[in-house]
Amino acid sequence: MRIIIGGAGRVGTELARALRAEEMDVVLVDSDSRAVKNAQNLDVLVIHGDLTTRDKLYEAGIGEAEVFVAATNSDERNLLACALAEHAHYQYAGAKAKPLLSISRIRNMNFLEEQKQGHLTNWAKVNHVVNPLDSAIKRLHTGLRSSSIEEVIPFGHDSYIIEFNVTKNANGIVFNSLREANTTVDGDLPLIVGVKRAGEKSIVPDGDFVLMPNDTIAVATNGLSSFNRILNIFGHEATDFPISPKVAIIGANRIGQMIAENWLMNGAKVTVIERDLQLANEFSATDIGSNPNLEVIHGDHLDRDILTEVGIPEHHIAIAALESDHDSIAAALLASDMGVNRTGLLLYDADLVKVTQRMGITFAVDRKRVAVDNILAHIHTKAAGAYAVLSNVPNIVGISMRVDSAHKFSNMRIADAGFSEWMRIAFIQRRTVDGSWENLRPAPEKLLLPEDNLIIFTSPDRVSELERKFKV
Predict the structure, then answer these.
(1) CA–CA separation, 424 and 455 (whole Å)
(2) Which of 47, 387, 390, 449 has its CA 20 to 30 A from that of 367?
(3) Are the C-beta atoms of residues 389 and 459 closer than 8 Å to each other?
(4) Are 102 and 70 within 8 A, CB to CB?
(5) Model confidence over 255-302: pLDDT tens digits?
Protein backbone atom coordinates (compact mmCIF):
# COMPACT_ATOMS: atom_id res chain seq x y z
CA MET A 1 0.00 0.00 0.00
CA ARG A 2 1.42 3.40 -1.01
CA ILE A 3 1.13 6.13 1.63
CA ILE A 4 2.09 9.73 0.87
CA ILE A 5 3.00 11.93 3.84
CA GLY A 6 3.17 15.69 3.45
CA GLY A 7 5.61 17.20 5.93
CA ALA A 8 8.96 15.74 6.98
CA GLY A 9 8.96 17.20 10.46
CA ARG A 10 8.89 15.12 13.63
CA VAL A 11 5.36 13.77 13.10
CA GLY A 12 5.92 12.99 9.42
CA THR A 13 9.26 11.23 9.91
CA GLU A 14 8.09 9.22 12.96
CA LEU A 15 5.01 8.19 11.02
CA ALA A 16 7.13 7.18 8.02
CA ARG A 17 9.46 5.16 10.26
CA ALA A 18 6.54 3.30 11.87
CA LEU A 19 4.95 2.52 8.50
CA ARG A 20 8.22 1.32 6.97
CA ALA A 21 8.57 -1.05 9.93
CA GLU A 22 5.34 -2.56 8.63
CA GLU A 23 6.92 -2.73 5.16
CA MET A 24 4.55 -0.13 3.69
CA ASP A 25 5.45 1.84 0.53
CA VAL A 26 6.00 5.35 1.93
CA VAL A 27 6.70 8.69 0.22
CA LEU A 28 7.62 11.86 2.14
CA VAL A 29 7.17 15.31 0.55
CA ASP A 30 8.48 18.57 2.03
CA SER A 31 9.53 21.97 0.68
CA ASP A 32 12.13 22.50 3.43
CA SER A 33 15.52 21.33 2.15
CA ARG A 34 16.82 20.81 5.69
CA ALA A 35 13.87 18.56 6.60
CA VAL A 36 14.36 16.61 3.36
CA LYS A 37 18.04 16.12 4.12
CA ASN A 38 17.28 14.91 7.65
CA ALA A 39 14.78 12.40 6.27
CA GLN A 40 17.25 10.86 3.82
CA ASN A 41 18.29 8.20 6.35
CA LEU A 42 14.77 6.74 6.26
CA ASP A 43 14.10 3.86 3.90
CA VAL A 44 11.45 5.87 2.04
CA LEU A 45 11.21 7.97 -1.11
CA VAL A 46 11.80 11.60 -0.09
CA ILE A 47 10.75 14.36 -2.50
CA HIS A 48 11.78 18.00 -2.17
CA GLY A 49 8.91 20.20 -3.28
CA ASP A 50 5.62 21.91 -2.58
CA LEU A 51 2.91 19.55 -1.34
CA THR A 52 0.21 21.80 -2.79
CA THR A 53 1.37 21.44 -6.40
CA ARG A 54 -0.10 18.86 -8.72
CA ASP A 55 3.29 18.03 -10.27
CA LYS A 56 4.82 17.01 -6.93
CA LEU A 57 1.80 14.89 -6.06
CA TYR A 58 2.16 13.18 -9.42
CA GLU A 59 5.88 12.61 -8.74
CA ALA A 60 4.94 11.08 -5.38
CA GLY A 61 2.59 8.64 -7.11
CA ILE A 62 -0.74 10.08 -5.99
CA GLY A 63 -2.58 7.98 -8.58
CA GLU A 64 -1.42 4.75 -6.92
CA ALA A 65 -1.72 6.00 -3.33
CA GLU A 66 -4.34 4.65 -0.95
CA VAL A 67 -3.58 7.00 1.94
CA PHE A 68 -2.63 10.69 1.98
CA VAL A 69 -1.50 12.34 5.24
CA ALA A 70 -1.00 16.11 5.54
CA ALA A 71 1.17 16.72 8.61
CA THR A 72 2.80 20.11 8.05
CA ASN A 73 2.72 22.87 10.69
CA SER A 74 0.01 24.80 8.81
CA ASP A 75 -3.66 23.85 9.14
CA GLU A 76 -4.57 25.74 5.98
CA ARG A 77 -1.80 24.09 3.97
CA ASN A 78 -2.85 20.65 5.23
CA LEU A 79 -6.48 21.18 4.23
CA LEU A 80 -5.56 22.56 0.79
CA ALA A 81 -3.20 19.62 0.23
CA CYS A 82 -5.94 17.08 1.07
CA ALA A 83 -8.39 18.71 -1.34
CA LEU A 84 -5.80 18.80 -4.13
CA ALA A 85 -4.64 15.24 -3.43
CA GLU A 86 -8.22 13.96 -3.75
CA HIS A 87 -8.67 15.64 -7.14
CA ALA A 88 -5.22 14.63 -8.43
CA HIS A 89 -5.68 11.03 -7.29
CA TYR A 90 -8.75 10.46 -9.44
CA GLN A 91 -7.29 12.50 -12.31
CA TYR A 92 -4.16 10.33 -12.58
CA ALA A 93 -5.67 6.97 -11.56
CA GLY A 94 -8.68 7.23 -13.85
CA ALA A 95 -11.44 4.63 -13.83
CA LYS A 96 -9.33 2.15 -11.85
CA ALA A 97 -8.87 4.53 -8.93
CA LYS A 98 -9.25 3.09 -5.44
CA PRO A 99 -10.74 5.35 -2.75
CA LEU A 100 -8.14 7.70 -1.21
CA LEU A 101 -8.10 7.92 2.58
CA SER A 102 -7.05 11.46 3.59
CA ILE A 103 -5.90 12.46 7.07
CA SER A 104 -5.08 16.01 8.16
CA ARG A 105 -3.31 17.23 11.25
CA ILE A 106 -5.26 20.22 12.62
CA ARG A 107 -4.80 22.64 15.53
CA ASN A 108 -7.43 25.33 14.89
CA MET A 109 -10.56 24.74 16.95
CA ASN A 110 -12.78 26.21 14.21
CA PHE A 111 -11.61 23.53 11.77
CA LEU A 112 -12.14 20.87 14.43
CA GLU A 113 -15.70 22.07 14.88
CA GLU A 114 -16.19 21.88 11.09
CA GLN A 115 -15.11 18.23 11.27
CA LYS A 116 -17.46 17.47 14.15
CA GLN A 117 -20.34 18.95 12.13
CA GLY A 118 -19.42 16.76 9.16
CA HIS A 119 -18.60 19.70 6.87
CA LEU A 120 -14.83 19.32 6.50
CA THR A 121 -15.10 16.14 4.44
CA ASN A 122 -17.37 17.92 1.97
CA TRP A 123 -15.31 21.03 1.28
CA ALA A 124 -11.76 19.87 2.07
CA LYS A 125 -12.07 16.14 1.22
CA VAL A 126 -10.62 15.19 4.62
CA ASN A 127 -11.72 11.81 5.99
CA HIS A 128 -10.08 12.15 9.41
CA VAL A 129 -8.73 15.05 11.43
CA VAL A 130 -6.03 14.49 14.04
CA ASN A 131 -5.60 16.85 16.98
CA PRO A 132 -3.70 15.07 19.76
CA LEU A 133 -4.51 17.48 22.60
CA ASP A 134 -7.46 15.58 24.08
CA SER A 135 -5.61 12.27 23.97
CA ALA A 136 -2.42 13.83 25.35
CA ILE A 137 -4.26 15.43 28.27
CA LYS A 138 -5.96 12.14 29.18
CA ARG A 139 -2.62 10.33 28.93
CA LEU A 140 -1.02 12.92 31.23
CA HIS A 141 -3.85 12.58 33.73
CA THR A 142 -3.41 8.81 33.85
CA GLY A 143 0.40 8.91 34.02
CA LEU A 144 0.37 11.20 37.06
CA ARG A 145 -1.21 8.48 39.17
CA SER A 146 2.25 7.05 39.91
CA SER A 147 5.82 8.31 39.98
CA SER A 148 7.13 4.96 38.72
CA ILE A 149 5.34 4.81 35.36
CA GLU A 150 7.38 5.88 32.34
CA GLU A 151 4.51 5.73 29.84
CA VAL A 152 0.82 4.93 29.85
CA ILE A 153 -1.23 4.26 26.71
CA PRO A 154 -5.04 4.10 26.91
CA PHE A 155 -6.71 1.54 24.63
CA GLY A 156 -10.29 2.51 25.36
CA HIS A 157 -12.95 1.18 27.71
CA ASP A 158 -10.71 1.54 30.78
CA SER A 159 -7.89 -0.62 29.41
CA TYR A 160 -4.27 0.53 29.58
CA ILE A 161 -0.71 -0.41 28.77
CA ILE A 162 1.77 0.88 31.34
CA GLU A 163 5.52 0.87 30.78
CA PHE A 164 8.10 0.85 33.59
CA ASN A 165 11.31 -0.84 34.79
CA VAL A 166 11.49 -4.02 36.86
CA THR A 167 13.49 -3.49 40.07
CA LYS A 168 15.73 -5.88 42.00
CA ASN A 169 13.13 -5.79 44.80
CA ALA A 170 10.66 -7.83 42.75
CA ASN A 171 11.14 -10.94 44.86
CA GLY A 172 9.95 -14.14 43.24
CA ILE A 173 9.68 -12.38 39.88
CA VAL A 174 13.22 -11.60 38.77
CA PHE A 175 15.54 -14.48 37.83
CA ASN A 176 12.47 -16.70 37.35
CA SER A 177 10.60 -17.59 34.19
CA LEU A 178 7.23 -15.89 33.83
CA ARG A 179 5.58 -19.28 34.28
CA GLU A 180 7.41 -19.79 37.60
CA ALA A 181 6.81 -16.20 38.68
CA ASN A 182 3.08 -16.65 38.24
CA THR A 183 3.05 -19.17 41.10
CA THR A 184 4.56 -16.62 43.52
CA VAL A 185 1.93 -13.91 42.96
CA ASP A 186 -1.30 -13.62 44.91
CA GLY A 187 -3.68 -13.76 41.96
CA ASP A 188 -2.43 -13.94 38.40
CA LEU A 189 0.82 -12.35 37.29
CA PRO A 190 0.04 -9.16 35.33
CA LEU A 191 0.09 -9.77 31.58
CA ILE A 192 3.38 -8.60 30.05
CA VAL A 193 3.01 -7.81 26.34
CA GLY A 194 6.53 -6.50 25.66
CA VAL A 195 10.02 -6.53 27.17
CA LYS A 196 13.11 -4.47 26.33
CA ARG A 197 16.49 -5.40 27.80
CA ALA A 198 19.53 -3.17 27.37
CA GLY A 199 21.48 -4.15 24.27
CA GLU A 200 18.81 -6.57 23.05
CA LYS A 201 15.82 -6.38 20.73
CA SER A 202 12.33 -5.93 22.18
CA ILE A 203 10.24 -9.10 22.32
CA VAL A 204 6.76 -10.33 23.16
CA PRO A 205 7.72 -12.78 25.96
CA ASP A 206 6.44 -16.31 26.41
CA GLY A 207 6.13 -18.32 29.61
CA ASP A 208 9.78 -19.41 29.50
CA PHE A 209 11.14 -15.86 29.44
CA VAL A 210 13.23 -14.97 32.53
CA LEU A 211 12.82 -11.42 33.84
CA MET A 212 15.89 -9.53 35.07
CA PRO A 213 16.27 -6.35 37.14
CA ASN A 214 16.19 -3.19 34.97
CA ASP A 215 14.18 -4.85 32.19
CA THR A 216 11.65 -2.41 30.76
CA ILE A 217 8.24 -4.03 30.47
CA ALA A 218 4.85 -3.14 29.01
CA VAL A 219 1.96 -4.50 31.07
CA ALA A 220 -1.71 -4.75 30.10
CA THR A 221 -4.21 -3.86 32.80
CA ASN A 222 -7.83 -2.90 33.36
CA GLY A 223 -8.75 0.12 35.47
CA LEU A 224 -6.65 2.83 37.09
CA SER A 225 -6.99 1.19 40.51
CA SER A 226 -4.82 -1.72 39.34
CA PHE A 227 -1.70 0.40 38.81
CA ASN A 228 -0.37 0.24 42.37
CA ARG A 229 -0.76 -3.54 42.66
CA ILE A 230 1.19 -4.03 39.44
CA LEU A 231 3.97 -1.65 40.47
CA ASN A 232 4.29 -3.35 43.86
CA ILE A 233 4.60 -6.77 42.21
CA PHE A 234 7.52 -5.56 40.11
CA GLY A 235 9.39 -4.01 43.04
CA HIS A 236 8.16 -0.41 43.24
CA GLU A 237 6.81 1.37 46.32
CA ALA A 238 3.52 2.74 45.02
CA THR A 239 1.52 5.32 46.98
CA ASP A 240 -2.25 5.76 46.91
CA PHE A 241 -3.64 8.48 44.68
CA PRO A 242 -5.90 11.02 46.46
CA ILE A 243 -9.63 10.69 45.79
CA SER A 244 -10.07 14.46 45.36
CA PRO A 245 -6.62 15.84 44.50
CA LYS A 246 -5.63 19.49 44.63
CA VAL A 247 -4.16 20.36 41.24
CA ALA A 248 -2.21 23.50 40.32
CA ILE A 249 -2.09 24.37 36.62
CA ILE A 250 0.46 26.87 35.38
CA GLY A 251 -1.03 28.78 32.44
CA ALA A 252 -4.58 29.76 31.47
CA ASN A 253 -4.07 29.41 27.73
CA ARG A 254 -6.28 27.06 25.70
CA ILE A 255 -4.24 24.01 26.76
CA GLY A 256 -4.34 25.04 30.42
CA GLN A 257 -8.10 25.48 30.23
CA MET A 258 -8.54 22.03 28.71
CA ILE A 259 -6.36 20.46 31.41
CA ALA A 260 -8.35 22.27 34.12
CA GLU A 261 -11.64 21.04 32.68
CA ASN A 262 -10.32 17.47 32.55
CA TRP A 263 -9.35 17.47 36.24
CA LEU A 264 -12.54 19.23 37.35
CA MET A 265 -14.60 16.56 35.58
CA ASN A 266 -12.72 13.96 37.62
CA GLY A 267 -13.45 15.52 41.01
CA ALA A 268 -10.29 17.58 41.57
CA LYS A 269 -9.95 21.01 43.11
CA VAL A 270 -8.02 23.16 40.66
CA THR A 271 -5.94 26.32 41.00
CA VAL A 272 -4.85 28.01 37.74
CA ILE A 273 -1.99 30.51 37.95
CA GLU A 274 -1.66 32.91 35.01
CA ARG A 275 0.87 35.72 34.57
CA ASP A 276 -1.21 37.56 31.93
CA LEU A 277 -4.11 39.48 33.52
CA GLN A 278 -6.23 39.44 30.36
CA LEU A 279 -5.90 35.65 29.97
CA ALA A 280 -6.76 35.14 33.64
CA ASN A 281 -9.87 37.34 33.33
CA GLU A 282 -10.98 35.67 30.10
CA PHE A 283 -10.73 32.23 31.69
CA SER A 284 -12.63 33.37 34.78
CA ALA A 285 -15.46 34.56 32.52
CA THR A 286 -15.93 31.17 30.81
CA ASP A 287 -18.40 28.49 31.86
CA ILE A 288 -15.52 26.49 33.33
CA GLY A 289 -14.35 29.57 35.23
CA SER A 290 -17.55 29.58 37.28
CA ASN A 291 -16.93 26.08 38.66
CA PRO A 292 -16.86 26.26 42.49
CA ASN A 293 -13.84 23.94 42.60
CA LEU A 294 -11.78 26.25 40.37
CA GLU A 295 -9.74 29.28 41.44
CA VAL A 296 -7.97 31.44 38.85
CA ILE A 297 -5.04 33.44 40.23
CA HIS A 298 -3.31 36.31 38.42
CA GLY A 299 0.37 36.21 39.30
CA ASP A 300 3.88 35.20 38.32
CA HIS A 301 4.27 31.42 38.46
CA LEU A 302 8.00 31.86 39.18
CA ASP A 303 7.42 34.11 42.20
CA ARG A 304 7.88 32.04 45.36
CA ASP A 305 5.89 34.52 47.46
CA ILE A 306 2.86 34.21 45.19
CA LEU A 307 3.15 30.43 45.09
CA THR A 308 3.35 30.35 48.87
CA GLU A 309 0.33 32.64 49.10
CA VAL A 310 -1.80 30.31 46.93
CA GLY A 311 -0.64 27.32 48.98
CA ILE A 312 1.32 25.54 46.28
CA PRO A 313 3.03 23.18 48.81
CA GLU A 314 -0.40 21.82 49.79
CA HIS A 315 -1.23 20.82 46.21
CA HIS A 316 -0.87 17.16 45.25
CA ILE A 317 -0.10 17.86 41.59
CA ALA A 318 1.35 20.72 39.52
CA ILE A 319 1.04 20.78 35.72
CA ALA A 320 2.75 23.34 33.50
CA ALA A 321 0.99 24.16 30.23
CA LEU A 322 2.97 27.08 28.79
CA GLU A 323 3.78 27.77 25.14
CA SER A 324 7.50 27.15 25.67
CA ASP A 325 8.78 23.73 26.79
CA HIS A 326 11.62 25.35 28.72
CA ASP A 327 9.25 27.72 30.55
CA SER A 328 7.03 24.77 31.44
CA ILE A 329 9.97 22.76 32.76
CA ALA A 330 11.14 25.67 34.92
CA ALA A 331 7.65 26.12 36.38
CA ALA A 332 7.26 22.41 37.16
CA LEU A 333 10.70 22.19 38.78
CA LEU A 334 9.96 25.18 41.02
CA ALA A 335 6.66 23.64 42.12
CA SER A 336 8.50 20.41 42.89
CA ASP A 337 11.14 22.30 44.87
CA MET A 338 8.37 23.91 46.92
CA GLY A 339 6.93 20.55 47.92
CA VAL A 340 4.54 19.35 45.20
CA ASN A 341 5.02 15.57 44.97
CA ARG A 342 3.70 14.99 41.44
CA THR A 343 4.51 17.23 38.49
CA GLY A 344 3.40 16.91 34.87
CA LEU A 345 4.19 18.41 31.47
CA LEU A 346 2.83 18.42 27.93
CA LEU A 347 5.88 18.82 25.70
CA TYR A 348 6.50 19.56 22.03
CA ASP A 349 10.10 18.27 22.04
CA ALA A 350 10.30 14.48 22.40
CA ASP A 351 13.94 14.60 23.47
CA LEU A 352 12.97 16.56 26.57
CA VAL A 353 10.61 13.83 27.83
CA LYS A 354 13.47 11.58 29.00
CA VAL A 355 15.48 14.57 30.23
CA THR A 356 12.64 15.76 32.47
CA GLN A 357 12.24 12.28 33.96
CA ARG A 358 15.89 12.40 35.02
CA MET A 359 15.24 15.84 36.51
CA GLY A 360 12.56 14.38 38.77
CA ILE A 361 9.42 15.42 36.85
CA THR A 362 6.79 12.75 37.53
CA PHE A 363 5.33 12.39 34.06
CA ALA A 364 5.66 14.14 30.70
CA VAL A 365 3.71 13.53 27.52
CA ASP A 366 5.17 13.90 24.04
CA ARG A 367 2.32 15.50 22.09
CA LYS A 368 3.78 14.55 18.72
CA ARG A 369 4.06 10.90 19.72
CA VAL A 370 0.34 10.95 20.52
CA ALA A 371 -0.33 12.53 17.10
CA VAL A 372 1.57 9.72 15.36
CA ASP A 373 -0.40 7.06 17.26
CA ASN A 374 -3.69 8.75 16.33
CA ILE A 375 -2.75 8.94 12.64
CA LEU A 376 -1.67 5.28 12.61
CA ALA A 377 -5.04 4.29 14.07
CA HIS A 378 -6.80 6.00 11.15
CA ILE A 379 -4.46 4.50 8.55
CA HIS A 380 -5.21 0.99 9.78
CA THR A 381 -8.81 1.17 8.69
CA LYS A 382 -9.29 -2.53 9.38
CA ALA A 383 -8.48 -1.89 13.02
CA ALA A 384 -11.30 -1.53 15.51
CA GLY A 385 -10.13 1.91 16.59
CA ALA A 386 -6.79 1.79 18.40
CA TYR A 387 -3.15 1.57 17.37
CA ALA A 388 -0.05 2.53 19.33
CA VAL A 389 3.70 2.16 19.13
CA LEU A 390 5.20 1.38 22.55
CA SER A 391 7.55 4.17 23.64
CA ASN A 392 10.04 2.38 25.88
CA VAL A 393 9.69 -1.07 24.34
CA PRO A 394 10.50 -0.20 20.72
CA ASN A 395 9.45 -2.34 17.77
CA ILE A 396 6.35 -3.60 19.56
CA VAL A 397 2.94 -2.24 18.52
CA GLY A 398 -0.59 -2.69 19.79
CA ILE A 399 -3.55 -2.82 17.44
CA SER A 400 -7.26 -3.39 17.97
CA MET A 401 -8.89 -6.03 15.75
CA ARG A 402 -12.55 -7.04 15.62
CA VAL A 403 -13.82 -10.61 15.60
CA ASP A 404 -16.32 -11.27 12.82
CA SER A 405 -18.78 -14.16 12.75
CA ALA A 406 -17.12 -15.29 9.49
CA HIS A 407 -13.74 -15.81 11.16
CA LYS A 408 -12.88 -19.45 11.70
CA PHE A 409 -11.89 -18.69 15.30
CA SER A 410 -15.23 -17.03 16.11
CA ASN A 411 -16.96 -18.83 19.03
CA MET A 412 -13.74 -20.73 19.77
CA ARG A 413 -11.67 -20.78 22.93
CA ILE A 414 -8.43 -18.83 22.63
CA ALA A 415 -6.52 -22.07 23.27
CA ASP A 416 -8.15 -23.64 20.19
CA ALA A 417 -8.05 -20.59 17.91
CA GLY A 418 -4.64 -21.37 16.43
CA PHE A 419 -3.11 -17.94 17.04
CA SER A 420 0.62 -17.66 16.36
CA GLU A 421 3.33 -17.28 18.99
CA TRP A 422 4.38 -13.91 17.52
CA MET A 423 1.17 -12.24 18.66
CA ARG A 424 -0.18 -11.66 22.17
CA ILE A 425 -3.79 -10.79 23.02
CA ALA A 426 -3.77 -8.21 25.80
CA PHE A 427 -7.51 -7.54 26.18
CA ILE A 428 -10.85 -8.87 25.04
CA GLN A 429 -13.25 -5.92 24.88
CA ARG A 430 -16.87 -7.05 24.77
CA ARG A 431 -20.13 -5.13 24.64
CA THR A 432 -22.57 -6.05 27.42
CA VAL A 433 -26.36 -6.37 27.18
CA ASP A 434 -26.83 -2.79 28.43
CA GLY A 435 -24.58 -1.41 25.66
CA SER A 436 -21.51 -0.69 27.81
CA TRP A 437 -18.11 -2.37 27.40
CA GLU A 438 -16.25 -4.78 29.63
CA ASN A 439 -12.62 -5.88 29.51
CA LEU A 440 -11.80 -9.56 29.89
CA ARG A 441 -8.43 -11.09 30.59
CA PRO A 442 -7.50 -13.34 27.63
CA ALA A 443 -7.25 -16.66 29.49
CA PRO A 444 -6.88 -19.76 27.27
CA GLU A 445 -10.40 -20.97 28.09
CA LYS A 446 -12.09 -17.67 27.12
CA LEU A 447 -14.45 -17.83 24.13
CA LEU A 448 -14.01 -15.33 21.29
CA LEU A 449 -17.42 -13.99 20.30
CA PRO A 450 -18.48 -12.04 17.20
CA GLU A 451 -18.05 -8.27 17.67
CA ASP A 452 -15.35 -8.72 20.34
CA ASN A 453 -12.47 -6.26 20.03
CA LEU A 454 -9.08 -7.86 20.61
CA ILE A 455 -6.12 -5.65 21.57
CA ILE A 456 -3.15 -7.53 20.11
CA PHE A 457 0.59 -6.86 20.46
CA THR A 458 3.19 -7.90 17.94
CA SER A 459 6.18 -6.62 15.97
CA PRO A 460 5.41 -4.04 13.23
CA ASP A 461 6.48 -6.36 10.40
CA ARG A 462 3.69 -8.77 11.43
CA VAL A 463 0.86 -6.20 11.29
CA SER A 464 -0.05 -6.85 7.65
CA GLU A 465 -0.12 -10.60 8.37
CA LEU A 466 -2.32 -9.95 11.40
CA GLU A 467 -4.72 -7.86 9.32
CA ARG A 468 -4.95 -10.65 6.74
CA LYS A 469 -5.82 -13.08 9.55
CA PHE A 470 -8.76 -10.86 10.50
CA LYS A 471 -9.85 -10.10 6.94
CA VAL A 472 -13.33 -11.25 6.03
Answers:
(1) 8
(2) 47
(3) no
(4) yes
(5) 999 999 999 999 999 999 999 999 999 999 999 999 999 999 999 999
Q: Which residues contact 174 (CB under 8 A, 6 or more apart)?
A: 166, 168, 211, 212, 213, 235
b/e map 295-329, b = 16+ CB within 10 Å: ebbbbebeeeebbeebebeebbbbbbbbeebebbb
Find all residues with CB under 8 Å of 303, minimum gap 6, and list them.
Answer: none
- Looking at the fold, whether 35 and 122 belong to one and the same domain comes out as yes
Tell me which H or E stretch contains 16.
helix 10-21
CB 366 within 8 A of CB 347: yes
User: Would the pLDDT of 384 be above 80?
Assistant: no
Q: What is the pLDDT of residues 197-249, one digit of tens each?
A: 999 999 999 999 999 999 999 999 998 889 999 999 999 988 888 989 999 99
pLDDT at 381: 64
Q: Is 373 contained in some domain?
A: no
Strand 437-440 to 65-70 pairing? unpaired
Q: Which element (helix H / strand E) includes 402?
A: strand 397-402
- Let me know if residue 391 belongs to a domain: no
Q: Please tell me the total count of domains within the chain.
A: 4
